[in-house]
Amino acid sequence: MEDVKELLQSRIEGISDPVQKVLLQDVLVDVFGELLRYSSEQFSQLEKRLDEEICDSSRLYYIDTGVCKRDSMDDTSRCLFEMKTEENHEKGYLGKLFLACDYHVICQCMQKTYHALVETDQGEFRTTVSLKYCKDYLETLEQLYQTFLANQRPWHTINCPFLYKFLTIVDREGIVPEDALVKKVEIMLGELSHSVINDAVLVWNVQEEIHKPSVEVAAADREAVNIHRILLPDEEAGYLAMPEGEDNFCTVFSEGQLMVRTEKEIHKNMKLFKIARMDSKKDYTALLYPLQTNRRKMRHIDRQAQLSPRYLWTKGEIERRLSSYEVFQEFELVDICMDLTAEFDVLAVNPFIRSHSFMKKKRKLTIVLHPKDGTDIFRYEKMFFLLAELQLCTEEYQWTGILR
C-alpha cells in the first residue's frame, strides 16, 4: 500500500492548477484507492478458499460430536444424528447413564460397586451394580475407524470427550431376570447423584444411508470384479463405503460419484457412512455442552512441514502441530519431557487406535499442558485426543500427557 500511496502522490504533484489538483486527488484516492482495497480483499478471500478446498484433503471428513437429552433432539436436523449402536449387550446389562464428573472421579467409580434399586415390568429388585465404559459406543467408533482405513481415506482421531462419560450399568449379582424390561435404575451414588444425567444420547454428524448402485462386471488379473457406481447427492458431505461381507474392496472417489470394486458378490444395496457438513443454522438440538470436533486448519507452514522427511519433536514443532486443531485453543503448552518414570494410561481412552508398535518397549515423550478452564470436566479427554493425533504421527515414541 505504500507503493500505491507514492504513485498517487507523484501524479497529484504533477498538476499545477489547485482546483484540478483537489479534484484529481479526490478521484485517485476515493475511486482507485477503493478499487485497490477491494481487489486486495477479494484476492485474500480467494486465496483462503483455495487453501481450504485444495490443501486439506480431509475437509469433508471432520467429525462433530455432542450430547443431549433424547427428547431434546431435532428430528429434522440434517447434520446431527444419534449414534446408532448394535444391540449386543453383555450379561447383566441394565442400561446406561451419563456421569458429568471429572476423568479421575469416573476412573474411581469404575473400580467400585454400588447398591441399586431396579424397577422392571416384573417388579423391583435390589442388587449390586458396577459401572464401565459403554462397549457399544466404543465398537461403533472402532467400526468407523476401520471403515476409514478400508476406504483409504485420511484418518484423524475423533474428539469425543462425551464418550467417556457414558457408563454401562451391570448387575453384579445376577438378581434381575434377563428377560425383564428395565424401567428405572436408581443407584446409590451418594454425593455424585447430582451428576447423573439420565436418558442422555450421543450425537454426531455421521449417518448411515442405503444406496442402490449401478453395477458392471470387469476383468482384473484373470478374475471378474464387480464395479459399483454410486451417485453422491450431497457434494458438501463425505462418504465412506461399507459393503457387507467384503473383507477386501477398493473405493475410488471422483467428482459427484463413488466407485466401489468388490470381488465376492454384486451388492444391489450398498451401505454408506455419510459425514454431513455441520451447519448450526440448520440444527435445533438442545445440546447439554458445546459441540466438539477434530477440525483443523491447514496453514501454509503446515503444508510446508508435510514436505519434510520427518518431524522434529521440539516444543515449537509440537505447538505448531497442535495449534492447527480448534480444541488446542483451550490449552497452553507448558513443556515437553523425555522418559518420565511415572506411568500414564493414555491408550485406554483411545481404544480404537491400533498399532503393532504398541507391543514394543518405546521411549516416552510427555507433553505438559495447562487448561485455560480448570473446571472443565472434559479437559483430560480433550488432552487424550491431542495425544492420539501425535501418536498417529510417529512409531518410535509413546506419547503421554500431564495437565497442570
Overall description:
With 404 residues, the chain is α+β, with helices and mostly antiparallel strands. It has seven helices and 20 strands. Helix content is 25%, strand content 30%. α1 packs antiparallel against α2. The mean pLDDT is 82.
Mean pLDDT, to the nearest integer, reads 82
What separation lies between the terminal Cα atoms? 45 Å
N to C succession of SSEs: HHEEEHEEHEEEEEEEEEEEEHHEEHE
Tally of DSSP β-strands: 20
Instruction: State the low-pLDDT regions, or none.
Output: none
Discrete helix count = 7
Q: What is the structural class?
A: alpha+beta
Most strands sheet: 6 strands, antiparallel
The share of residues in extended strands comes to: 25-35%
Q: Which percent range fits the helix content?
A: 25-40%
Evaluate the radius of gyration: 28 Å
- Shape designation: globular
Question: Strand order of the main beta sheet, please?
Answer: 7-4-5-6-3-8
For the structure shown, list the relevant keywords.
7 helices; six-stranded antiparallel beta sheet; about 400 residues
Write the layout of secondary structure elements.
Layout: H1 2-13, H2 18-55, E1 64-69, E2 81-82, E3 93-99, H3 103-109, E4 113-120, E5 123-133, H4 135-150, E6 166-171, E7 182-187, E8 196-197, E9 200-204, E10 206-211, E11 214-220, E12 223-231, E13 238-241, E14 250-254, E15 257-262, E16 270-275, E17 292-293, H5 300-306, H6 315-323, E18 331-338, E19 363-371, H7 379-391, E20 397-403
Parallel strand pairs: 19-20
Antiparallel strand pairs: 1-9, 1-17, 2-9, 3-6, 3-8, 4-5, 4-7, 5-6, 10-16, 11-12, 12-15, 13-16, 14-15, 18-19
Helix pairs in contact: 1-2
